[in-house]
Hints:
The protein is of the alpha+beta class and 131 residues long. Helices cover 35% and strands 24% of the residues. It has a 4-stranded antiparallel β-sheet, covered by helices on one side.
Amino acid sequence: MDIKSIAALCAAASMILCSSLALGAEPQVVRPVPPDQRRQAPEPYTRNTLIISLEPDMTSWKKRRIAKRHDLEIIYEYKNFSMMAVKTKKDLEPKEMERLIKELEKEKGVLQVSRDRILQLQDAKKAGDRD
């Protein structure tokens, strides 16, 4: 991500914060959860999906060629961010996934490869409990 993109994201976040404060919202302080109270997910990543950051001028044809070369399926193209999400044909073990990431990062036009994270916003047990 270049400096202009980061600046734009910061400006947008500041605008949202200022708007919410102007509407009377109370600012909330986020405190870190103590380590002994944290629950660790067995594996916070998917086992078959990667997010690939690409050079902005990369054509769809080049993206498809990279995916085909590594036996991947393009599941989504983030055109505004010059990124794509790809999926492997089968679930991979963590070491296999790291090997694939290293291979993809060697491709011309690939800037970064990240594993797709699994984020849970609400405790599954409490999701159904409404007060």
